[in-house]
Design a protein that fits this description.
- 2 copies of one chain form a homodimer.
- Chain A has 119 residues and is mainly α.
- Helix content of chain A is 66%, strand content 3%.
- Chain A has 4 helices and 2 strands; from the N terminus they run ααββαα.
- In chain A, strands 1-2 form a two-stranded antiparallel sheet.
- The radius of gyration of chain A is 25 Å and the shape is globular.
- Chain A has 2 domains: 65 residues, Multidrug-efflux Transporter Regulator, Chain: A, Domain 2; 53 residues.
- At the A-B interface, helix 1 of A face helix 1 of B.
- The first copy, chain A, binds a DNA duplex (30 and 30 nucleotides) through helix 2.
Chain lengths: 119, 119
Amino acid sequence: MSYRKKKVIPIGTVAELTGLSVRQIRYYEERKLVTPERTKGGTRKYSFEDVDILAEIANKMEDGMQTYEIRKMWEKEKEREALAQEKARKEMLQGQLNAHFNFHRLTDSRLSDPRLGDR
Amino acid sequence: MSYRKKKVIPIGTVAELTGLSVRQIRYYEERKLVTPERTKGGTRKYSFEDVDILAEIANKMEDGMQTYEIRKMWEKEKEREALAQEKARKEMLQGQLNAHFNFHRLTDSRLSDPRLGDR
DNA sequence: ACAAAAATGTTAGAAAATCTTACGTACTAT
DNA sequence: ATAGTACGTAAGATTTTCTAACATTTTTGT
């Protein structure tokens, strides 16, 4: 996994990196904006990605946005991305099918083309 | 700074990531193989780079190498790299000088070439 | 304007994680 | 044999984080 996604940073350090209070960071977890992992002992561990997300939250909050608005926004985003992904996937599949049948069409025409001898 | 170089990981997590004991990690610091930062409170913080270095140490130790051998090895490496850097730097500088004087040579010759008129 | 909800501070006590220091041990090299 | 290397382990202190609760401030909806 990438360094960006590995959950290794304790909450105090996250607070320093983002400028948020520890209280705020825990609260944003309660509102499902971040999902840290836990050690056996139960202490939270965040990733750099989480840090970036939290920094982004800090901005949106300054702009007067509410936590559930932020979450909703992200959910829409994810959905859009998922659709785009799906679309891309289908197109690629279609492309492969096309390539496949093209290959056969070419092969067949060549085989049945009297101008082309056996090789 | 890159995620790789930011010192944010506590020693327990480093131990998990590397499979080394906390004792070993502290010992390798004593032998100058890693240099974590500290929080105000005094707890160590490591980077992913440190984690990689420690993993590498673990291998060398398994091969029966001693800490000071490892350090010496790295110092030599650093030196070689520094020399290579220096060489590259000089070559680039020379390249720029060449380009510079080439430019003037071409310009001058054009200016003094009777076949080329004013524009 | 007022009540409810949201966002955050603060405090208290417990638990987890880390720190330093020191002593013990096994192995290696001289 | 002695000394150095590379750890393990233990003790006690300190730092960090945890949950839960209550308080305060800000925002929102009616």
